[in-house]
Amino acid sequence: MDVCDPLIAPGVGTPVKGGLDYREAHMVMEIVADSGLLKALDIVEVNPTLDLRNATAQLGAELVLSALGKKIL
Length: 73
What we know:
By secondary structure, the protein is an all-alpha fold.
């Protein structure tokens, strides 16, 4: 999760200014899903004490859905 820009994922231990935006993060996950090669997925670095209104956790759940084939773009 810390590869995402802090504007969309504030609840991480190592924020990356200029990281992936919402569309880029979902595009990566959709490419993974389209490849059919996904065997395992680990979404890490969500820190609830740093999160704002559960935004990072929500984004993580949405990214998992995209990796499993849900299209949002």
